[in-house]
Amino acid sequence: MADDGEFDDELDSEDSLTYSNGVIEKIVAIATREAAHVLGMKGNLMHFVQETLGAENLTKGVSVEVTDDNRVIVNISVIIEYGAYAPAIFEDVKERVTERLAAMTGLEVAGINLRIEDVMTREEYAASHKRAQEAAAE
Description:
alpha+beta; 5 helices; 4-stranded mixed β-sheet; Alpha-Beta Plaits
């Protein structure tokens, strides 16, 4: 049994572990891309301009809010494959994001909001990606 003095020293520790929102967003974005039928992430106009210029931002389409009790609310915007069942994609994304965040950071997810921004065939998505890359090369 530890004496009270040792216990008090542990309580007075100034050690801390924190994560930038960018780190949390990156984990969420990578986990989301692992889900079947998610073709890509949908960002705002600035993300499109950056991607067109060849600087793809891994966290586009993702924003996070940390609650007062250190839980995370995640907002994700995606492009899904035409013909895929959106509710199944939502469940897959929720499971992956929750699992990856807990495994890598220990953070608990308070909520996940998935917004389907577009529906495309794989061919359409590949063609639009190729056009953006060609435009950036010019």
